[in-house]
Design a protein that fits this description.
Blueprint: E1 2-10, E2 15-22, H1 25-34, E3 37-45, H2 71-86, H3 91-98, H4 105-119, H5 124-128, H6 137-149, H7 152-207, H8 215-229, H9 231-249, H10 252-264, H11 268-289, H12 294-301, H13 308-322, H14 327-332, H15 339-351, H16 354-410
Antiparallel strand pairs: 1-2, 1-3
Helix pairs in contact: 2-3, 2-7, 3-4, 6-7, 7-8, 7-11, 7-16, 8-16, 9-10, 10-11, 11-12, 11-16, 12-13, 15-16
């Protein structure tokens, strides 16, 4: 059975669009007419995996139709599917029910093609695996474990919880950083406008007087002249720097060096280590709790490591566990993994409650990171305001000093 995308008019003459499955285009048109929908455009959606070709240029990577599917939408669909399965709906019927309820056309297409793949005899996990840019390896492997154990609805519920918790943590961190970042951009923008447009007009009055100016005023004139003449360089240098870092990070060695530098920084590096430890333990706990074997789970967590150092550390852990070694011992030997996290993993291995200890570790470090970022942002805000005040004060002083000297001469 094929899947078609249509644009049409309903019985009230209103434009509508959607997805429908049928044996052929004529059958799809007949099916739509039965619903009093009259198609003006009908296109067959080809079922294929959404993957990147190795020959694709770098600037095309990550840009595709399915990038519009958000994590929140995926979480909502997963929870709804779990509810339908718990209510006794067959899998194909449950997926089919969700297609018209989905607002995103991209998600409608994915669900329609997943349903088609299941009807053709594919398992749910294999059907999801056709869309690696939509469904992560964690999602696919947990679904596979749920299908194998007959607890698919429970696994989907846990997946929805896992996705929502991860997004909540991400949004809390972004919200904590949003105001300081905005303040920084506004502050830099105000200073650039002052130095480029406002100050030159005022300073020009003193230059015409052929009078010896105070040192602060001379410095301000030099800085203002530089920004007026080379404002394009001030804008271009950060852009070129960002592009250079991006290009270096695209190489294997460059990415490794940049990640090592970031994770080694005094304050930021410590936070990054805790954040990666929280992400690793949370992901591993979810996979193990749903019946995924340890080695398979470790290999999956490498895909969400987010850092080459962490990727290398998990790879070493895979080799050690495969040889019969202890997972906690591998992480305890690394200076880039929090010591407390490695000790909690060791306790989990000894007590036989690995999943619980991993969950507790993730909770602990997520809260620690959020608290640290909140505290830092509360300190950054007054520092930015104070810095702005000092800089503006220096500019005002440099402008006022010549005025005071002229006033004294007049008296």
């Amino acid at each position: 059975m094929a899947v078609f995308e249509y644009n049409a008019f309903n019985k009230n003459g209103k434009k509508v669009s959607g997805i429908i499955d049928a044996e052929s285009s004529s059958a799809a048109k007949a099916k739509l007419r039965q619903q009093q929908i009259y198609p003006t455009l009908l296109n067959k959606i080809e079922s294929k995996a959404v993957t990147h070709s190795k020959k694709s240029p770098p600037w095309l990577l990550g840009i595709n139709f399915f990038s519009r599917i958000s994590a929140s939408e995926l979480s909502m669909i997963t929870r709804q599917l779990s509810t339908l399965l718990s209510a006794g709906f067959p899998l194909v019927k449950a997926v089919s029910t969700l297609v018209p309820q989905t607002k995103s056309k991209a998600m409608q297409k994915v669900l329609s093609q997943v349903k088609e793949a299941i009807q053709e005899g594919s398992s749910f996990a294999k059907a999801l695996a056709l869309y690696p840019n939509v469904f992560s390896p964690i999602f696919i492997n947990m679904v596979n474990a749920g299908e194998s154990s007959g607890t698919l609805e429970i696994v989907l519920e846990r997946l929805a919880d896992f996705t929502e918790n991860r997004e909540d943590s991400k949004k809390k961190i972004q919200a904590s950083l949003a105001y300081p970042v905005l303040m920084s951009f506004i502050g830099v923008g105000v200073l650039l406008i002052l130095l480029t447009y406002v100050v030159p007009g005022i300073i020009g009055i003193f230059s015409d007087m052929n009078q010896t100016l105070p040192l602060p005023t001379l410095i301000l004139i030099s800085v203002s002249s530089f920004f007026s003449s080379y404002w394009w360089a001030v804008v271009l240098v950060p852009v070129l720097f960002s592009l250079s870092v991006f290009s270096i990070k695209r190489t294997e060695k460059g990415a490794y060096l940049i990640d090592k530098l970031l994770i080694s920084l005094p304050v930021f590096g410590t936070l990054l280590q805790k954040l990666m430890a929280a992400r690793f333990t949370r992901t591993l706990a979810s996979l193990l709790d749903n019946g995924v074997p340890m080695l398979t789970a470790l290999n999956i967590t490498k895909s969400v490591a987010g850092n080459k150092i962490m990727f290398e550390l998990i790879s070493n852990a895979c080799e050690r566990v495969e040889q019969g070694g202890e997972l906690g011992e591998v992480f305890a030997q690394s200076k880039y993994f929090p010591y407390l996290a490695s000790q909690m993993i060791k306790i989990g291995e000894t007590s036989g409650e690995m999943e619980k200890m991993l969950e507790k570790t993730a909770d602990l470090f997520e809260k620690d990171v959020q608290s640290a970022i909140t505290a830092a942002s509360s300190l950054i805000e007054p520092i930015i305001i104070l810095t702005m005040g000092v800089v503006v004060g220096i500019i005002i002083l440099a402008i006022c000093l010549p005025i005071f000297e002229i006033n004294q001469l007049i008296q």
